[in-house]
Amino acid sequence: MHTPSPAACAAESAPATRLPLSGLLALALTGFIAILSETLPAGLLDQIATGMRISQAMAGQWVTAYALGSLLTAIPLVTLTQGWFRRRALLLAIGGFVLFNGLTAVSADNTLTLLLRFLTGAAAGLAWGLIAGHARRMVAPAQQGKAMAVAMLGQPIALSLGLPIGTWLGALLGWRATFVVVTLAALLLVGWVLRAVPDFPGQVAGRRPAALGVLRTPGVARVLLVILAWILGHNILYTYIVPLLAALGMAGEVGQVLMTFGLASLAGIALVGLGVDRHLRGLVLACLAGFALATLALGQVQGSAWLVHASVALWGLTYGGAPTLLQTACADAAGEGGDVAQSMLVTVWNSAIALGGIIGGLLLTGAGVASFGAVVLGLVAVAGWLVFAGRRAGFASGARRG
Q1: CATH, range 211-388
Q2: 14 has pLDDT over 70
Q3: Three-class SS of 27-53
Q4: Where in the chain are the domains?
Q5: Which of 104, 139, 263, 393 is most enclosed, with most CB atoms within 10 A?
């Protein structure tokens, strides 16, 4: 791949005066493929177990291996590629989706497949460390929140629509063909990125921030702790949504409830996109308050289907904009260390997902789903206090200064 000339770089790196939707949607598709690659085995568990001649529990470890790949490699990969031109690093991540998902589609050995899943997760860790920073650099500071809202669309769309469609394709074509479809989508994305996403220079050797220095930047650690508490609480509920709904008398409506959550999440992204540049702090506090209210309501609505859907819709509405809000807060606090901070965010986010499964499982086998509410509300209270106390660093009052 050739190195752009300084003149070309200057032209490409000038922030757009209006939202460059094509480039931002290419970033959103990158996130969509990352999430779909992670969650697809969950919707194809039976087929994978039968086709690979393994247990469903072992097939479930395909998701675990992916999460570990993101968790363990995001910070090292983003740090190692700080000096690269940004689009080149992004294309490396997308190339990982092409290569490793493609090999997964033809692999007959489970041990090899677990390694491929780990490497696919590593590609996702790199991608998530780049998407937010790239979106911010494509626009003027006053539009950075809106740009990130568009770039983050891939996550809720993948969760609400991508996984059901992938599961349907699996039933129609088989799980291997479904992975081939994801591989081809990633291959097409390479061309889209080359055409629509501008390039930006990396950081010169003497100015690359060390991870520890970025963590010590005022506000960064606070934002990461909020992420840990908020996303951990979310995943305790979301990971065990099936037994939670069963306890509410809605075991047969999981698909409909998840669709409600996904559509409400899309609405949450739209609302956050409109206000993140002026009211980031207020939106974070409002979303945490709404999540707490939804959690309380879910403990009181047994036997009422419409109240369950209303509670889940409020939950989805408050969660949909969380990636935009938290990534914006993290990037604002980190400044020049934004890409490294985003890699830390990826690590903390995936840690919260993993801990949500572990803690939720312990609660489920112990006190049962009735114990979820108190634990989640405690985590939300911690997150809310951290945000409220972060008026000077992390969650500053007033409009964003970019």
Answers
A1: 1.20.1250.20
A2: no
A3: HHHHHHHHHHHHHHHHHCHHHHHHHHC
A4: 6-207, 211-388
A5: 104
